[in-house]
Amino acid sequence: MRLQRRIAAIAVCCLLLLAGCWDSVELNRRAIVAGMAIDKGPSPEREYMLSFQIIVADEITGKNSRGNSPVVLYTGTGRSMYEALSNASKQIARFLSLGHIRVVIISEEFAREGIKGIMDTLERESEARLTSLMFVARGQMAKDCMTLMTALGKIPANDLVGKVENTSSTFGYNFRMEVDDIIRGIQVPGGGALMNGVWVSGDKETGKSNENMHDITPAAILRISGIAAFKGDKLVGWLDNGEARGVALLQHRLTQTPVVVHTDGNLIVFNIFDNSVHLKARAADPEHPVIMIRITQQASIKELNGNLDLMNPDMLKRAEAELEETTKKDVEKAIQIARSMNSDYLGFGEAVERSNPRGWKKIEDHWDDVFARCEVKVQVKAVTQSTEMRSRSMKMPE
Amino acid sequence: MGEVRMGIVQCFTLAMLFELGTAMVVNLGVDTGKDAWMSVLLGGIAGVLPFIGYIYLYRAYPDDPLSRYSRKLLGKYLGGLVALLFILSFMMMAARDLRDGSTMLVMATMNRTPIFVISLMMILSSAYVAHKGVEVLARTSLLFAVIVMLIGGFCGLMMIFSGKINLLRILPLLENGAWPVLRSVLVQNYMFPFGEMICFTMLMPYLSDSRRGPWVIVASMLFSALLLSLTTVMNLSVLGADIVARSPLPLMPTISKISISDFIQRLDVLVVMVLIIGVFFKITVFYVAALVGISDLFGLPYRTMAYPAALIILFLSVMNARGFTEHLDEGKRLLYTVFPVFTLALPALLIIIAALKRHRSAPRPD
């Protein structure tokens, strides 16, 4: 009995030592990476410039806080992603922990040249995860988008995640795009990826320091800006206005969005809070497929500047017709721009494939041509569910 | 045979964990793209057919493992040779699974830990349970089956709640026609993991209920086929066929996509747990089957060879191949050459001889 107990005790001690085996890294030896920026370096030896936004745990918890920056940025360079990542260790005293990367920002320069090399590392690395959000730094260094102090929340990377989620659920022109969304987009034949754009406005130098939070108006703000459209893995253009909303709608990713319409000199702002989108292809003749898009939208009225009688269903129907027209224009604009960029990131090819798999095999190699000329029918129905807390406007004469 | 008995529920869970084993996490039916789940399901049904043959043999010799009735059917020398070959093949399959499991652990989580150390830990735990005998193994499986089902249910629910499943990604069905799916079933999916049930011929004599027992195992096979197929559907509808086809362990990235308001996330550690549990049972069942064979063929006590066999399996697994790609390539070649001999050809031979014998010795009506 005694002997058994002794053996058991030794075994338990061994278990403690063996936890994680050769790969064990204690928490105080880890540097948690919250965000990563990828820039193109000046020379082939330094082609990949990876900047890591690392959380300074002591500053976050507050107890041992020295009042310094809550994150720190280090940059490593190399001929490849992984070399740059390893190279960064020259400056970082701790083991880079990639498991908690929230955002990855790629510079526009890189995006225009192709990002397959970058995506390979992001999906191959067993520590990194597919739920990180991806962005393109619009016309700026990706690194600059990582160096701004934020007033709300201490970690800038989390701040950026919050911005995407917030604008997606209220404004609707952008939506979450994760690593695997990008990879799937790249791999669609004839299609391409979509990525949110980010852009720093204001004084970047001041933005780096605590001063950015001293004033009521921050000196520099990182903002979401447009959607980057890719052909395969190369950036080909930016979607900004109605077309961005059209794309979000066609991707089933539009949640809420304000739509401004004019009816008989009245300005009405609808808030669309529910969309259902049916995208089907009629492709009995694969060379001439017809893409059928049926959209149903539920809206409420948020704003009325005019004297339209909202209690009159006929009047409301006229406003709804305008709303339908606006949505239709957004979608058509989105399609038109996708065609001008020659990239089927809208997923029409997949719809054709679903409806006629055999026909798709015949047109797969020249889908670009078919996509450019195929017929698209857009049908929008909008319903105003409520006028919210008031019926008639103040401007309405009694 | 002896006092050792496996209950009905235990043999269900043992067969289930054995089937799910590595198959749950690895990439099944790679060649069939979006239709992989169909080939997995059909493979399960096709895999039952050879098992019905094994049941026939079991009915003929309910108290004997394969190594004993092979000698009764083929004679002392030829039958002994066949039994020896089976024992070797079980040890080799155990070694292959050990290599699979430890390499996958290294790939997925422990990048810098030597494979040998992980293999050693795994085979030692296997050896411990194998040393305790078949009954302990069966009882252990009941415990772990509950854990695996809980993990599976939890992950499935979380996956649905996080809204990452998009069933459009597995459409259109049968894009390239039915032939690629059938081909995949015929060359691969009937064998892995369902054909490997041959090793249960060594364990079936321990069944407590010889009448219902074999059919419980069949039910367990079909149930695992359903689970594997569902897992494949989940992988495909979360990641898309392209990413799945390029992933050696698609279940990990799939589960890592679960994120519920940034609070419940990184559930892929659970997949690692399932992987370890599954690999453990896969190795141990093959290993115990080999041990039963050894003790029967050479007339040794069951426990004498437990640790020597563990050493053989460990070194087979390490010396097997230089790298994982080589190991997988070898597996592919074995799939067409060696495995069908042991799961189809030799059992078929035994079945035919058993049928002839029974026919000849049957009392003839006048």
From TrEMBL, chain B:
Pfam families: Spore_permease. Gene3D superfamilies: Amino acid/polyamine transporter I. Belongs to the amino acid-polyamine-organocation (APC) superfamily. Spore germination protein (SGP) (TC 2.A.3.9) family. The lineage of its organism: Bacteria, Bacillati, Bacillota, Bacilli, Bacillales. The chain crosses the membrane at residues 7-30, 36-57, 77-94, 114-130, 142-161, 181-203, 215-241, 269-292, 304-322, 334-356. Keywords: Germination, Membrane, Transmembrane, Transmembrane helix, Transport. It is a multi-pass membrane protein. This is Spore germination protein KB. It is found in: Membrane.
